[in-house]
UniProtKB/TrEMBL annotation:
HAMAP family: HisD. Pathway: Amino-acid biosynthesis; L-histidine biosynthesis; L-histidine from 5-phospho-alpha-D-ribose 1-diphosphate: step 3/9; Amino-acid biosynthesis; L-histidine biosynthesis; L-histidine from 5-phospho-alpha-D-ribose 1-diphosphate: step 2/9; Amino-acid biosynthesis; L-histidine biosynthesis; L-histidine from 5-phospho-alpha-D-ribose 1-diphosphate: step 9/9. Residues 163-236 form the Phosphoribosyl-AMP cyclohydrolase domain. It comes from Kluyveromyces dobzhanskii CBS 2104. Its cofactor is Zn(2+). In the C-terminal section; belongs to the histidinol dehydrogenase family. This is Histidine biosynthesis trifunctional protein. Pfam families: Histidinol_dh, PRA-CH, PRA-PH. GO terms for cellular component: cytosol. One of its GO terms (molecular function) is phosphoribosyl-ATP diphosphatase activity.
Length: 798
């Protein structure tokens, strides 16, 4: 390091005073420079290995710009505020990239540990050629009797070229001309390297060693590339080893390879060269033994180097790239392109011998029943521990957090977290006509059923003569609809939420769904439904982060008034969180968590039907639960049912999920229909299926359920997709207090009243009496003042 560290304000100074670049440490003042100005300085350096830092005192650079600087070659940030340093560390700047001011000096720790006194930072306008020379010369010492300074000459790759000597004059000349100029002891005169041989050196930097008694000149050797008078690269001979030796050999062959030689063929046939690179790369990945790995890697380097040489790219260019990449502080995930990932053969459903077994308990065994009907969910506190930081991150960092969390939880790197309407046509690629028709039919049935529920009329009741009360509906203006996409993508949920939102007249409909790993998009079916219901945006995110983005809004996600839709425990917990946060001002539909079903069947029920219904919900997720309540079932029927579940489950692609779900699911045996319905009401299932004789007549006994499926030919899947009812339903037993999604879920109701003088006469005294007992005199007075003016109260009324 030199005794002074130049502080720059722009690129002009470098043009006027190019010798400034000889300092291997430069600081750019961030106060008056934009990010681009600073990066221009980095690029205009002849020696990219220089340390260029930025002084962040009173700088007006935002966090993103600061990070961009560190990603593009700035080595460290000079900072004198501990708070700002803590903030930068929080936004992802490694502490080693901060040069902190402490005890009158800046402490630089990146690559080399040094203290830089504040006085060493000198504004470039105050540096002249003489002062620059003097600062170097005055810091040098020598113990040689001839007063010369030992000077090590190295190239830009830090390979030593030779040991020479300098005196004050040669140093000044070298700095002034930025070329290699030394003092020749044999000729006792200034030695301008290359003056006769033509092998002139460009001087890149001048450094002092740790105790100031030796100089290092970093040079770029020009001419034939020889430093030594014996025409070798260094005074110790040519560089034969390693990649530089190989580069020289190949450069030589490139210009002189004999016709017909393999190297000539390689340089002339780019396809052959590409094929060899791929072949060697593959062999390297297959090598196992240490010596084989080294062997294959050497081959790969050979062909890769041939490609560099053939295209005029040098190892130095590659190393510069490595340096810049090494300095980056934010990195891409580094996943391989899909074509390089070994395709897994589709796994055949795992046929294990282990029975998929539905446990049986008797309704009389209260303890066993209690255990059987306990839902397999994580405790709220545990799940909130995971969800809270996610929400806080989104609230604080908006889109940036959404992108980061989507990369973390969904494995998708996005540029932007939102797809805006009108949705590009290519997003519908893959949507078949069959599916379009199926979705259209479902949309139409859901529309019919939900339109019939639509309340538009104003309800009016005259409670007393002159007192008219009314209630009128209004749509919730902005709604956020969550469409699950974790273990399965559910376009059906898009229509179950989007259609009633449209029917109710919501002004803005925002979809959110996790993007697919394969291409970072949501499925074409979801996009199709979004288009049909007039969604304005699709937020490409899932889980708690998607919920938080819609509840609080981000740069690109609009804040909504209500969030609706089912999801896993993270989604449900986040919905519960935001509805309790008054800062969010956001309501939710209900807790609609992992799917569940309770089937009541009797001895006459078709075991295949019953098993298929249980499995249709079991396949949703390992946290789903299915309960079969049997009315007076014989032992053989129970066995048949258990076998049917096992056999059908083995045929399912999601058998592994089913197996885990069935492990916490049960058959509960009841002795009567009455007892069965008591059991069901106590469980309050999301879906209740009645596969019993005269099922319809039992609907009156249902007190708590999300949706009921009546009779043997009403599989639950019909409600999931196409019958017209809504499939977004309360789970966890919340059917006790919540309805499933319906048109009114997207509406709110405003009441109004109009009171005439007659009306006031009829209710005024009652109002005053109650206000008096509550001690709220202003309330009482608002009536009293009017009634008095109307002459409805006797004089002196108190
Ligand atoms: N009650 C209903 O009306 C109803 C309707 C349809 C679906 N469902 C249920 O919805 C659920 C859908 O769940 P899903 O997981 O398939 O999709 P999902 O879209 O609900 O959740 C996936 C998201 O969860 C997040 N996530 C995953 N692991 C995480 C972790 N460890 N920490 C934080 N976040 C994490 C990810 O961001 C991911 O995008 C199922 O349980 C299904 O049964 C319920
Ligand atoms: N059964 C789910 C509600 O719990 C809804 C659904 C969507 N797709 C398939 N099923
Ligand atoms: Zn389902």
């Amino acid at each position: 390091m030199l005794p002074i560290v130049p502080v720059l304000n722009g690129t002009d100074a470098l043009k006027e005073k190019p010798y400034i670049c000889l300092s291997n440490q430069i600081v750019v003042d961030g106060k008056n420079s934009s990010k681009d100005d600073i990066l221009e300085i980095v690029q205009s350096q002849p020696n990219q290995a220089h340390n260029v830092s930025v002084l962040l005192k009173d700088a007006r650079l935002d966090d993103d710009e600061v990070i961009a600087l560190l990603n593009n070659g700035i080595s460290t940030l000079f900072i004198d505020s501990a708070e700002y340093a803590a903030h930068l560390i929080e936004v992802g700047v490694p502490s080693v990239r901060l040069t902190m001011f402490k005890d009158g000096a800046y402490h630089f720790n990146f690559g080399q540990v040094q203290k830089i006194q504040e006085s060493q930072l000198v504004d470039v306008s105050k540096i002249s050629l003489d002062s620059f020379n003097n600062s170097i010369i005055s810091s040098l010492k020598t113990d040689r009797s001839d007063g010369l300074y030992t000077t090590l000459v190295v190239d830009e790759n830090e390979r030593s070229l030779g040991l020479v000597y300098s005196n004050k004059e040669s140093i000044s000349l070298a700095i002034e001309t930025q070329t290699g100029i030394y003092f020749s002891r044999s000729r006792n005169e200034i030695w301008r390297k290359g003056a006769t041989s033509g092998n002139v050196q460009q001087l890149l930097s001048v450094e002092l060693d740790c105790d100031g008694d030796a100089l290092k000149f970093v040079v770029r050797q020009g001419g034939s590339g020889s430093f030594c008078h014996l025409d070798t690269e260094s005074c110790f001979g040519d560089f034969k080893h390693g990649l530089y030796g190989l580069q020289r050999l190949l450069q030589d062959r490139f210009s002189n390879a004999p016709e017909g030689s393999y190297t000539k063929r390689l340089f002339d046939d780019s396809e052959l060269l590409s094929a060899k690179i791929k072949e060697e790369a593959e062999e390297l990945t297959e090598a196992v033994e240490k010596k084989d790995i080294a062997w294959e890697c050497a081959d790969l380097f050979y062909f890769a180097m041939a490609r560099l040489v053939a295209n005029g790219v040098s190892l130095e260019d590659v190393e510069q790239n490595l340096n810049v990449k090494h300095m980056k502080i934010t990195r891409r995930k580094g996943d391989a392109k899909p074509k390089f990932i070994k395709k897994e053969e589709p796994v055949a459903p795992a046929v294990t011998e282990e029975k998929i077994f539905l446990n049986v308990v008797s309704a009389d065994d209260k303890t066993a029943v209690e255990q059987a009907v306990t839902r397999p969910i994580q405790k709220t506190a545990e799940i909130m521990n995971l969800v809270n930081p996610i929400i806080e991150n989104v609230v604080k960092n908006g889109d940036k957090a959404l992108i980061e969390l989507t990369a973390r939880f969904d494995g998708v790197e996005l540029e932007s977290p939102v797809l805006e309407a009108p949705f590009p046509k290519e997003y519908l690629e893959g949507l078949t006509d069959e599916l379009r028709d199926a979705l259209d039919l479902s949309i139409e049935n859901v529309r019919k059923f939900h339109e019939a529920q639509m309340q538009t009329d104003t309800l009016t009741v005259e409670t007393q003569p002159g007192v008219v009360c009314s209630r009128f509906p209004r749509p919730i203006e902005k709604v956020g609809l969550y469409i699950p996409g974790g273990t399965a993508i559910l376009p059906s949920t898009a229509l179950m939420l989007g259609v009633p939102a449209k029917v109710a007249g919501c002004k803005e409909i925002v979809f959110a769904s996790p993007p697919r790993k394969s291409d970072g998009r949501v499925s074409p079916e979801v996009v199709y439904v979004a288009g049909k219901v007039g969604a304005s945006k699709i937020v490409l995110a899932g889980g708690a982060q998607a919920v938080a983005s819609m509840a609080y809004g981000t740069e690109s996600v609009p804040k909504v008034d209500k969030i609706l839709g089912p999801g896993n425990q993270f989604v449900t917990a986040a919905k519960m969180y935001v509805q309790n946060d008054t800062q969010a001002l956001c309501s939710i539909d209900m807790p609609a968590g992992p799917s569940e079903v309770l089937v009541i069947c009797d001895e006459e029920a078709d075991v295949d039907f019953v098993a298929s219904d249980l499995l249709s919900q079991a396949e949703h997720g390992i946290d789903s639960q299915v309960i079969l309540v049997g009315v007076s079932l014989s032992d053989s029927k129970i066995k048949e049912l258990q076998n049917a579940v096992h056999e059908q489950a083995l045929q399912l692609p999601r058998v592994d999920i089913v197996r885990k779900c069935i492990a916490h699911s049960s058959i509960i045996l009841c002795k009567s229909y009455e007892e069965a319905f008591q059991m069901s009401n106590q469980y309050a299932p999301e879906h209740l299926i009645l596969q019993i004789a005269d099922a319809e007549s039992y609907v009156k006994d249902v007190d708590h359920a999300g949706s009921v499926f009546v009779g043997a030919y009403t599989p639950e899947s019909c409600g999931d997709y196409s019958s017209g009812t809504n499939h977004t339903l309360p789970t966890y037993g919340y059917a006790r207090q919540y309805s499933g999604v319906n048109t009114a879920t997207f509406q709110k109701f405003i009441t109004s009243q109009a009171v005439t003088p007659t009306g006031l006469e009829n209710i005024g005294r009652a109002v005053m009496s109650v206000a008096k007992v509550e001690g709220l005199d202003a309330h009482r007075n608002a009536v009293k003042i009017r009634m008095t003016k109307l002459g409805l109260l006797p004089t002196g009324f108190e």
